[in-house]
Amino acid sequence: MQPTHARGVMRRHVMTPLLGVLLSACATAPQSQAPTQQATTATASNTPAPYTSTYRARASQATLIRGATILTGTGARIDNGDVLIVDGKIAGVGTQLSAPAGAKVIDAKGRWVTPGLIDVHSHLGVYPSPDVDAHSDGNEMVDPVTAQAWAEHAVWPQDPGFQAALEGGVTTLQILPGSGNLIGGRGVTLKNVHATTYQAMKFPGAPQGLKMACGENPKGYYGEKGQAPMTRMGNVAGYRQAFADAQAYRDEWDKYRRELAEFEKKQQGPGKKDEQAKPPSPPKRDLKSETLVGAMNGEIMVHIHCYRADEMAIMIDLAREFGFQIAAFHHAVEAYKIADLLAENGICGAEWADWWGFKMEAFDGVMENLALTDMPKNGCAVVHSDSAEGIQRLNQEAAKAMTRGVRMGLDISREHAMKWLTLNAAKALGIDEVTGTLEAGKMGDVVIWNGDPFSVYALAEQVFIDGALVYDRANPPTRPASDFLLGQYDATEGSAQ
Amino acid sequence: MRTLIASLLVICASNAVAQDVLIRGATVHTASSKGTLTNTDVLIRDGKIHSVGSGLSADGAVSIDAKGRALTPGMFAGLSTIGVEEVSQEETANDAALSLGAPAYEMQWRPEFDVSTAYNSRSVVVPVTRIEGMTWTVLAPGTARGSNFLAGQGAAVTLDGRRDAVLDGSRSLFINLGGKLNSLSGGSRAAQWMLLEQAVHETRNRISDDKALMHPLGREVFGRYLAGGRVVFHVDRANDIVKTVSLAKRYGIKPVIAGGAEAWVVAEELAEAKVPVILDPLANLPSSFDQIGARLDNAALLHRAGVKITFSQFEDSHNARKVRQTAGNAVAHGMPKEAAITALTADAADIFGLGASRGRIAPGQAADLVLWSGDPLDVTSVAEQVWIAGKAIEMRSRQLELRDRYFQRLKQVTSK
Questions:
Q1: d(Cα B246, Cα B393) in Å, to the nearest integer?
Q2: Matching InterPro entries, A to Z (chain A) (predicted)?
Q3: Over pLDDT 90: what percentage of chain B?
Q4: Is B191 on the interface with A (CB under 8 A)?
Q5: Apex CA A369: angle with CA A365 and CA A372, to 5°?
Q6: Among A120, A158, A155, A121, CA closest to A138
Q7: Any residues with CB less than 8 A from the CB of A87 and at least 6 apart, and which?
Q8: A382-409: burial string, b at 16+ Cβ within 10 Å, e else
Q9: Nearest beta carbon to residue A340 from set B125, B295, B410
Q10: Which domains does chain B have, with CATH numbers?
């Protein structure tokens, strides 16, 4: 099955971007800013963040995973190591850890343990299975700039793809709008737990993403209709006007806040109150510009679907013009041509291992792209899926890319390549302070694999989210998690296992 | 390794004259009843496998020490449009589907359309695919908007770069069925069966050309398939698969099921009727109402029931090389590894009528061979050397040229 965006601009698209602040962590700072407990939604107004997370960690038992090969996600490997999870958090990683009273002890001899995998680019829920017209909710292609649209408002939590991704070890994922528009809207980061509402999946404190798109998709779709953008010139003009408008909007709000402060000062100060004075009126809210202001303020991570090296360089200049940070270029099949430029600017390359050629801007794909993106100092390679199939085996994508890099002469260990699936992805999403590695204090998002996760034969055996066992291959759910699949095919029918 | 490369260079340099090649000490996955043979030699002569055994020798042969590594037959790249579709989304660079845009009553059915005639042996996709161990593919016409669910004919091609690449005896007709094709059959899959019946009727009875589905040539071609020809039906829903098998039986067609997401449900019927299935082992999601029962052990269940299977991705020609990974996933979900290797080699050849000449490592078979760095199905292995018709393929592609250009650049800028 092809990645979603590869099927053409008409139905599906590429991903959404993440926030800029977090991205800066990729290149310049060892750690990104910790998300606040409740994400502030970037608004020019003082409205509190709406659509808050209602996610609650499942009840969990203290768990000691003992005697495994551990890839910590920080670039380290521990042989015959232990991971202790207490109260939903990693309490210790090392050797010869002792189990607290009442802890469940898992003998993981011969097993491999990694952080839960993170996909920065998914359309699960917005382009769910089954792929029917009624479910096509990822691209608001009525205007090239729909920064006001939020992917989270279209996520269908009953998409069976979430459970399939969980069985592939994915514990966190960003759902992005498609790439049909220049600016598609906001993305949302989810915990991969089954829930009836998306709010109950929403990753607490994770910043939202902003999805932008370069190249063929926007210009192709709108150009064919005889409207802007019709060319790559029009694409860039479109981003620039949208951000220029947002700057003016931000100025309006800044002016209002100054006047309001002045007014309040006057009213509260000593002396006689001016009974006639009226407070200034706030500007009318513009949801489109609010999103872009959020990106410029660093509250929203910017994620840009962009294939070609030359276009990525233009987007870096765009970010400079308007003062935002790009978290990651997504797909980025030509990242290998400018890996040094990406690293210098603290931008991750979120990539497939081998998709190419489905369109002109993907014609120069190479299988060493991730390895070369990773090569410079501060290089930030991220394995992404953009696909309901690919998200189920991100570990195999990393294995292919690692293998090609090693064949080329680069020194890439399994413990290093594991960062492409965990820590680097967490950085691009701005959540690396709370998940993405096996380090004390982080969320208990952990996968036990039945073998080397860089093998095609490896399967996730047990998956923990915030310390709770949410998937156990030895005791698979007898009923599907998704309401949609309930009462259709029996999961236990004719099993080959 | 260095000696391997050196000897391969010799082979490449002298490719005008077929030279004997002796591969020594390999783990030979024969994909035949002989199974897997360790520490075994394979002698290639005149483009074919001359002998398989231990202690073989040949004067003047290029000798390659396999050092115990795996040697398999060249793998099947699946159904594809390699060499027919250079850039999928560019109209001028994609010849995969016939799309006349006329309604059925305007004689839109063109079974005489043969997509293999559009094959470009110089396509950059050809080397990209073959250096990954895939030595042949079956070109299958696509169905596009304004085309027909009877897509036309295709055939197997060897990927060694020859212009005349079609493999004799492999030509097949391709028919796509199911809900995704409803817009091409007046809104109902029931009309797909109806139109197929009409085509049979037209072919077998004298009818006026006025308002016929097919031209006289089309009827002639269609008629050949009614006389025991191979027709590949892309169909996913279990009920539709059974209906397809029964229609094929009724009209003397030799059916092959492609897609087959719910084939496991009717595995016994397929085994009984000896109908093979070409499936994507990764298709486990209910991505349409035709494949609600899709699951990861489809391959394992079909194999266990005795159905001959092979693997393919669908509509992914540029990355057809990924089929090897999909086979590995079939193994991870219960299919025996040797069976999965055989599925991608001998079984695929048998399904397309090529088993007598290729797909196995046995004397007399075409010397399409791959020497692997490790497990032939694992993602951490790569093809170290590929031979097609006994000739060592130059292990280069446009992608590797691009890689090397920018790897050099990056080495320079990052070493400063």
A1: 43
A2: Amidohydro-rel, Metal-dep_hydrolase_composite, Metal_Hydrolase, Metallo-dep_Hydrolases_sf
A3: 88
A4: no
A5: 145
A6: A155
A7: A60, A62, A467
A8: bbbbbbbbbbbbbbbbbbbbbbbbbebe
A9: B410
A10: 1-74+359-416 (2.30.40.10), 75-355 (3.20.20.140)
Q: Residue B366 gets which letter from DSSP?
A: B
Contact A74, A423 (CB under 8 A): yes
With beta carbons under 8 A apart, name residues in chain B contacting A458. 332
For the stretch B225-235, pLDDT in tens is 999 999 999 99
Structure ipTM = 0.95
User: B15 and chain A: CB distance < 8 Å anywhere?
Assistant: no
Q: Residue A74: what pLDDT? A: 98
Is A124 in a helix, a strand, or coil? Answer: coil
The alpha-carbon radius of gyration of chain A (Å, integer) is: 23
* Other CB atoms within 10 A of residue A199 CB: 17
In chain B, helix, strand, coil percent, each to 5? 35, 25, 45
How much is the pTM? 0.93
Strands (E), A38-155: 63-71, 77-86, 89-94, 104-107, 112-115, 117-122
Q: Side chain identity at A486, as an amino acid letter? A: L
pLDDT of B192 reads: 96
Alpha-carbon distance B128 to nearest alpha carbon in chain A (angstroms): 10
User: Do the Cβ atoms of B285 and A160 come within 8 Å?
Assistant: yes
Alpha-carbon Rg for chain B in angstroms: 22
Residue A317 backbone class (left: φ over 0; alpha: ψ -120 to 50; beta: rest): alpha
Q: Is A140 on the interface with B (CB under 8 A)?
A: no
Give me the mean pLDDT over the B96-122 stretch: 90
Say yes or no for a CB contact (<8 Å) between A131 and B414. Answer: no
Rounded CA-CA distance A325/A316 in Å is: 8
CB atoms within 10 A of CB B274: 12
DSSP H or E segment with residue B158: strand B150-158
> Which single residue is written with the structure tokens 């203290």?
A62
Q: What are the beta bridge partners of residue A175?
A: A122, A188
pLDDT given at position A47: 56
- Which residues 266-305 of B are in CB contact (within 8 Å) with A? 267, 280, 282-289, 292-293, 295, 297, 300-301, 304
Compute CA B391 distance to the chain's CA centroid, rounded to the nearest angstrom. Answer: 21
Query: What domains can be seen in chain A, in order of their start residue?
Result: 1-55+117-266+283-433 (3.20.20.140)
- Contact yes or no for A365/A61 (Cβ under 8 A): no
Chain A nearest-CA distance from B84, in A, is 13
Would you tell me how many other CB atoms lie within 10 Å of the CB of residue A186? 33
Query: Rounded distance, CA A379 to CA A348, Å?
Result: 7
With vertex at residue B331, the alpha carbon angle to CA B325 and CA B335, rounded to the nearest 5 degrees, is: 140
Spell B188-223 as b/e; 16+ CB within 10 A means b.
ebebbbebbebbbebbeeeeeeeebbbeeebbebbb
Total Cβ atoms within 10 A of residue B44: 28
Is residue A20 over pLDDT 50? no
